[in-house]
Write a structure and sequence with these properties.
Number of strands of chain A: 10
Oligomer: heterodimer
Structural class of chain B: mainly alpha
Largest sheet of chain A: 6 strands, mixed
Shape of chain A: globular
CATH topology of the largest domain in chain A: Rossmann fold
Strand content of chain A: 15-25%
Number of domains of chain A: 2
Radius of gyration of chain A: 18 Å
Radius of gyration of chain B: 21 Å
Structural class of chain A: alpha/beta
Distance between the termini of chain A: 40 Å
CATH superfamily of the largest domain in chain A: P-loop containing nucleotide triphosphate hydrolases
Helix content of chain B: 55-70%
Largest interface: A-B, 59 and 50 residues
CATH architecture of the largest domain in chain A: 3-Layer(aba) Sandwich
Number of helices of chain B: 16
Number of strands of chain B: 4
Distance between the termini of chain B: 27 Å
Strand content of chain B: under 5%
Largest sheet of chain B: 2 strands, antiparallel
Strand order of the largest sheet of chain A: 6-7-8-3-9-10
Chain lengths: ~250, ~350
C-alpha cells in the first residue's frame, strides 16, 4: 500500500492473566488523523507501547509501509520516520527550548562522524526557529526547558515529535494538564502540521471535544478490545461506548 | 551561539534531572529576557569572557615564576588532574553516566607511560597509545552502563577501580607492586629538555589547554547536545533517533581517554608510579571536583580541581584537623550550593530578577 500506511493486526499483550491488549486490529491511511479513546486501564497506552517498541507484543503484527516492524526498537522506528510523544512530559530539562528542538532532529542529519564535525546547530537552526515560531515559543527559546511552565513544556514536547518531519506520529494524551485555551490552539497546530508536513497522526485523548473536532476516525477501546470504530458522531452515540466510557 | 556548552541550565548535583522537570520548574519564564535572535550584548559578553579567560591563562602560566619548586609542582599536578576531571565532566556532567572509576584509567595511563618510557619508547608515541588503550578499556566499562544506572553504575565502576588497583599492587613482575616503578624519564620537545620544573609545567599546561579546547569543540558539536539529551532523558532521546548505546559507550571512552593522557603526564611529572595515587578514593575526589565546580558546566572542573588539589595544601596548617574541616566545607557547599561554585552568579541573578 501507499506511504504512511500503518496496519495493526490482531495485537495481544498479556501480563500474566491480565490481557492489557486483547486482539486489536486497525489501519491508518496516509495523512489520516485517528483518535483512540477509552476508559483508564483499557489498554490504550499499552497498545501504543506495543506499536512503538517500548514493549514487545505477545502476539500479532504491526506493519508500516509494507514492512513488518513488530517488536522493533524505538531507535529503528525513529529511523523509519515514526515519532511519538509520551503520556507524561518528556523534554530535555537542562537544554534550551531551541536545543531541545535541534536535538529532536539532529540524528537524522548525516552520519555520526559527520555530526562530530558539523556546525553546532547541525544545520537545523532555521528549522528550529520556524517550529519555535509556529508553537509560539519565541520569547522563551533560549531558556532551559525545565524552567518553563507545564503548558509551555507540553508544547515543546509536541514540537519535538514533529521536528524531524515524521511520516507517522503517535501522541499519547497531548491535552492532559493543558488549559482550555491552549487545547484549541493545540488542535489548530495539529491541523496546520497535518496540512503542511503531511504524515499520519494517531492520538490517545480523553478530551472528547478535542477528539471529535480533530479526528475524522475514532477508535474506542474497552478492556483491551476495540469496542467501536468509525466516524466520531457514530462512536459517541454508540450505546456500548456510552455505557462503558462516556456515561449519559 | 547555542550548543550544549552554554545550554546547561541549573544542574541538579550529579543526579540526572527528574523526567518532566517538575523539580527544576520555576515559573520565571514569563518575565524572561530571552529573545530568539542572538543579541549584540551576548556577543560582547562572549568576547569579554574570552579576554578574561586569556588573561587568567597567562597569569597562571607566569605564576610559577614567583613560586618555589613545590608550588610549581602543585600547579603542574593541578593541570594533570584537570585533564582527568574534564574527561570525567563529559562522562558524568554532560552524559549523565555516574563513574567512580576515573582514577583507574588515570592509573592505567600512568603505568603504560612508566613501563614504555623506561623501555625507551618516545613520549609522543606513548601519549596516543595510552589514550587509545584507555579509550578501549573505557568502551568496555561502558557496557555495564547500558544495563544499570545511577548508584548501581557507581558501584560497578567502583568495583572496576578496585580491581585495577589490586592488579597494580599484586602483579609485581609488571607493575613493581607496592614498590612501584621509579626513574621514569621526562620527555624532551624539539631538542629542548623538559627536565626542569618550569619547562615541564609549561609543557603540561599547553597540553591541558589543547585537551580542553578539543573537549570544548566536541561538546559544541551536535555530539554535545546528544550527550546532554542522553543525560536529561534517555527514553525520549532514543525515540528521537539518538543512538543511546553508542553515546553511552563513547561518553565513558572519551572520559577514560582523557584520564589516560593525564596519567602519562602524571608519570612524567612525579617520575615514580605506585598504586596509591590510583586508589578509588582518588576517583571520589575527582567526582567531588565535578560536583563542587558545577556538574555539566564546562569550566566547573577548573574550580573543582583547585578545591581538590590546592585546598588540602592550604588547610595543611591545621594538621590533624584539616580533613575534618575539608569534609565540613564540602557538606556545607552541597547543602547551600548544590549546583556547584559556578552556579553562584545565577543564584544572584535569580534573587535579583523581578518576579
Amino acid at each position: 500500500m501507499s506511504a504512511g500506511f500503518l496496519a495493526v493486526q490482531n495485537v495481544h499483550k498479556a501480563y500474566g492473566a491480565i490481557r492489557a491488549v486483547d486482539g486489536v486490529t486497525f489501519r491508518v491511511g496516509p495523512g489520516e488523523i485517528v483518535g483512540v479513546i477509552g476508559p483508564n486501564g483499557s489498554g490504550k497506552t499499552t497498545l501504543f507501547n506495543s506499536i512503538l517498541g517500548q514493549i514487545r507484543p505477545s502476539s500479532g503484527s504491526v506493519e508500516f509501509c509494507g514492512e513488518d516492524i513488530t517488536g522493533m526498537a524505538p531507535l529503528q522506528l525513529a529511523r523509519r520516520g515514526i515519532g511519538r510523544t509520551f503520556q507524561t512530559l518528556q523534554v530535555f530539562v537542562q537544554l534550551s527550548v531551541r536545543d531541545n528542538l535541534i536535538a529532536a532532529a539532529q540524528e537524522f542529519q548525516g552520519t555520526m562522524r559527520a555530526r562530530l564535525f558539523a556546525k553546532p546547530d547541525a544545520g537545523l537552526g532555521a528549522r528550529a526557529d520556524e517550529m519555535i515560531e509556529l508553537f509560539g515559543l519565541t520569547r522563551v527559546a533560549r531558556l532551559p526547558a525545565g524552567s518553563l511552565s507545564y503548558g509551555q513544556q507540553k508544547l515543546i514536547d509536541i514540537a519535538m515529535a514533529f521536528m524531524p518531519s515524521p511520516r507517522l506520529v503517535l501522541l499519547d494524551e497531548p491535552c492532559a494538564g493543558v488549559n482550555p485555551g491552549l487545547v484549541d490552539e493545540l488542535r489548530e497546530l495539529l491541523v496546520t502540521l497535518n496540512r503542511t508536513q503531511g504524515g499520519s497522526f494517531v492520538l490517545i485523548e480523553h478530551n472528547m471535544d478535542f477528539i471529535m473536532k480533530l479526528c475524522p476516525h475514532v477508535i474506542c477501546m474497552v478492556e483491551g478490545k476495540v469496542m467501536a470504530e468509525g466516524a466520531p458522531r457514530a462512536v459517541q452515540s454508540d450505546p456500548r461506548v456510552l455505557e462503558a466510557y462516556l456515561g449519559n | 551561539m547555542g550548543g550544549a556548552l552554554s545550554a546547561a541550565g541549573p544542574p541538579q548535583g550529579a543526579n540526572r534531572a527528574p523526567v518532566g522537570g517538575s523539580a527544576a520548574a520555576k515559573p520565571q519564564a514569563s518575565g524572561g529576557p530571552a529573545s530568539a535572535a542572538p543579541s549584540p550584548v551576548s556577543d560582547r559578553a562572549f568576547r569579554a569572557r574570552c579576554i578574561a579567560l586569556a588573561i587568567a591563562l597567562v597569569a597562571f602560566a607566569l605564576l610559577p615564576l614567583f613560586l618555589k619548586s613545590y608550588g610549581t609542582y602543585l600547579c603542574t599536578l593541578f593541570c594533570v588532574m584537570l585533564m582527568a576531571t574534564c574527561g570525567l565532566n563529559l562522562t558524568v556532567g554532560y552524559a549523565g553516566q555516574m563513574s567512580l572509576g576515573q582514577a583507574a584509567f588515570y592509573g592505567i595511563g600512568a603505568y603504560i607511560a612508566a613501563i614504555a618510557l623506561k623501555a625507551g619508547v618516545p613520549f609522543f608515541v606513548v601519549l596516543p597509545v595510552a589514550g587509545i588503550a584507555c579509550f578501549a578499556v573505557g568502551l568496555a566499562l561502558g557496557f555495564p552502563a547500558l544495563r544499570v544506572q545511577h548508584h548501581y553504575l557507581a558501584f560497578a565502576t567502583l568495583g572496576f577501580n578496585i580491581l585495577v588497583y589490586l592488579v597494580m599492587r599484586n602483579e609485581e613482575k609488571i607493575t613493581g607492586g607496592t614498590y612501584g616503578i621509579s626513574g621514569i624519564p621526562r620527555p624532551s620537545l624539539l631538542g629542548f629538555s623538559l627536565d626542569g620544573v618550569l619547562p615541564f609545567f609549561w609543557f603540561t599546561l599547553a597540553a591541558t589547554v589543547v585537551l580542553i579546547a578539543m573537549l570544548g569543540w566536541l561538546l559544541r558539536s551536535p555530539w554535545g547536545r546528544a550527550f546532554a539529551a542522553l543525560r536529561d532523558n534517555p527514553i525520549r532521546a532514543e525515540s528521537l533517533g539518538i543512538n543511546i548505546t553508542a553515546y553511552t559507550l563513547l561518553a565513558f571512552a572519551i572520559g577514560a581517554a582523557c584520564a589516560g593522557i593525564a596519567g602519562v603526564f602524571f608519570a612524567a611529572l612525579v617520575q615514580y608510579v605506585e598504586p596509591a595515587p590510583f586508589h578509588f578514593s582518588v576517583s571520589l575526589m575527582m567526582l567531588l571536583a565535578i560536583i563542587v565546580g558545577g556538574s555539566g558546566r564546562f569550566f566547573g572542573p577548573v574550580i573543582g580541581t583547585v578545591v581538590i588539589v590546592l585546598l588540602p595544601e592550604w588547610l595543611r596548617f591545621m594538621q590533624d584537623w584539616y580533613l575534618a574541616v575539608f569534609g565540613f566545607a564540602v557538606v556545607a557547599l552541597m547543602i547551600w550550593l548544590p549546583g556547584g561554585i559556578l552556579s553562584i552568579p545565577e543564584r544572584f541573578a535569580r534573587a535579583r530578577a523581578p518576579r
